[in-house]
Amino acid sequence: MKKVIIFCFIIFTKLSFSQHTESYMAIANNFKIVDSSKVELKWKNGKLKERKKTIKLIHNNTEYKLLTGVHEQFNRKGIKRTESLFDKYGNYLSYKFFDLDGNIITEIVTLKIDYTDNQLLEITKEYTDYMEYKGEIYRYKTGKKCNNKKIGKWFTYDSCGNIIKEKNYSK
């Protein structure tokens, strides 16, 4: 049983940082985490507004306050509107935006976080937008962005899941 737990722990830690390249990790290992705190904010009506965890880290004698872990935001009625996941360095790993019925409208997943010589940080994300048609939620558009610039193939779908438009973007 002990071996199974150790194996699961190793797999989890490898997967949780799979977006980070070796060049980024070489820089990130110089970050020093000095403090962390959990924060819950409420609306005036007592309903939960925001739940998050923050960290303070120091890099090159500069202090930064960043989000880490799960970050949730709620509307005044207490309905969850967004859910984000951050790594231990404050980088987005995933983001979900919900409609009032709890359906995912937009989902963003970070694929790669890299450091290059000519640019400090290069982040590649995969975007998926959903739409509602006749009471059904369907995938509307998918594609990738690198530093918020569309790259590769972007697909637009009809309500049956068929590709109706394909556009190619260069890096």
UniProtKB/TrEMBL annotation:
<protein>
    <recommendedName>
        <fullName>Toxin-antitoxin system YwqK family antitoxin</fullName>
    </recommendedName>
</protein>
